[in-house]
Every structure is written in C-alpha cells, then in structure tokens.
C-alpha cells in the first residue's frame, strides 16, 4: 500500500516561497510611518562540501528535504521568480497609492488652517477615501499572492510525487520521510539530490503529443 502524506508537508516546506512575497505587506497604512525593513543578516561562510555518504545497503526508509528541493530545483527556482515578479509589481502599485495618500495628507496639514470648513472637510474625506482604497488594495494583493502560491504548490506537488514514488519503488523503500520532521537520521538516507536531479530532468522532457 502506498501512502503519501504530501499536501500539508509540501505546503509547509514551500513556505520559503512566501518570503519573497511578503515585502509588499510592509507598505505602511495610510497615515502611518514607513516601516524600517529588517536588517540583512551578515553573510556567513558556506560549509565545506563533503562527499555524500552512500545509501545504506538494505535500507527500507529514506528521507528528503522538501525545502532544499523547493529552493534548489529548477521548478522551485521558477516558482520563486514568479513570486518575486508578482511582488515587484504589487510594490510599485501600492507605493503609488501610498504616495497619493501622503501627498494629500501633507497638503491638508499645511493648508488646512487657511481653508474654509467646507473645503477642509472635503479634503479630509478624500484622504480617508484614498486610505481605504490603499487598505483594500493591500488586502487584494495578499489574496492574489496566496492564490498564486497555492497554484505553484499544487503544480510542484503534481510533479514531485511521481518522482518520489518512482525512486521509492526502484529502491524497494517502505517509507520516504520529510527531513523537516526528522530528529536524527543517517545522512546516507538523504535522497534530496537524486530527487532534484530527476525532477529537473522530468521538467525538461517535452510532453508527449496528444493522441489523435
């Protein structure tokens, strides 16, 4: 019996794709001060490459790092690029709306004292209106980003599961676990590199022509 608990694991592991898409959410609300972006952590030296351990003879259990597969495979890199492109577009759109709100608010603060009550009230309503539009735009962007992420996760899972299934059958495995949920395991049981290699090869294979 083949049991693959993939949906929740893949969704959690591919959360790395969401990191690039969260920057737009830092756009300050109307009237709020711009938030200081988080400091970039100092670069650390990459660990020295080590020769992979051989797969233990007779082993019936293996594991893969879905986060590593998602960030290293061509499929994962493509997904990351799509989210980054989406983020850049939304940042530009929300940035323009934020500028419009701040410009009108600045005009109100500077000239409100010499305006008539009617003119000042009208401008205050306009500031409030633009602020609401900005908030709705932020919410829409969040919904669109979640939809895109779900779409990419489903595409990734659809291509990943057959690869894992094939490798497991070839090696006669009883189970393939997620590295993100392991406490300890022999590193020789890690099939991440093999999964990435096959996943990339499968993505480059042209689809079979439709039967007439």
Please describe what this structure looks like.
The chain is mainly alpha-helical. The protein has one domain (7-16, 58-203): Skp domain (Protein Binding, DinI Protein, Chain A, 2-Layer Sandwich), CATH 3.30.910. 59% of the residues lie in helices and 4% in strands. The chain is built from six helices and two strands. It has a two-stranded parallel ribbon. Helix 3 crosses helix 4 and helix 5 (117-171) crosses helix 6. The relative contact order is 0.21.
The CATH architecture classification is 2-Layer Sandwich
What percentage of residues falls in helices of 4 or more residues?
A: 55-70%
- Strand content of the residues, in percent? under 5%
CATH C-level: Alpha Beta
Mean pLDDT rating: 82
Give the spatial strand order of the biggest sheet. Answer: 1-2
Low-confidence stretches: 27-38
Total strand segments: 2
Question: What structural class should be given to the helix and strand makeup?
Answer: mainly alpha
Provide the CATH superfamily: Skp domain
Quick overview of this protein structure:
This protein is mainly alpha-helical and 212 residues long. The protein has six helices and two strands; from the N terminus they run ααβαααβα. It has a two-stranded parallel sheet.
């Amino acid at each position: 019996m083949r049991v693959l608990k993939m949906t929740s694991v893949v969704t959690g592991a591919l959360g790395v794709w969401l990191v690039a898409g969260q920057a737009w959410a830092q756009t300050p609300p109307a009237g709020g001060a711009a938030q200081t972006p988080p400091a970039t952590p100092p670069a650390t030296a990459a660990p020295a490459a080590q020769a992979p351990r051989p797969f233990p003879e007779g082993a019936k259990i293996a594991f893969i790092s879905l986060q590593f597969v998602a960030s290293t495979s061509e499929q994962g890199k493509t997904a990351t690029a799509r989210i980054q492109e989406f983020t850049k577009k939304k940042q530009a759109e929300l940035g323009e709306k934020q500028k419009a709100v701040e410009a009108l608010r600045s005009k109100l603060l500077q000239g409100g004292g010499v305006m008539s009550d009617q003119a000042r009230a009208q401008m205050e309503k306009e500031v409030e209106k633009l602020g609401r539009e900005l908030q709705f735009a932020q919410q829409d962007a969040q919904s669109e980003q979640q939809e895109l992420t779900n779409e990419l996760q489903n595409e990734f899972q659809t291509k990943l599961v057959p690869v894992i299934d094939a490798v497991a059958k070839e090696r006669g495995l009883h189970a393939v676990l997620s590295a993100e949920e392991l406490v300890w395991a022999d590193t020789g049981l890690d099939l991440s590199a093999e999964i990435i290699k096959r996943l990339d090869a499968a993505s480059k294979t042209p689809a079979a022509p439709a039967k007439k």
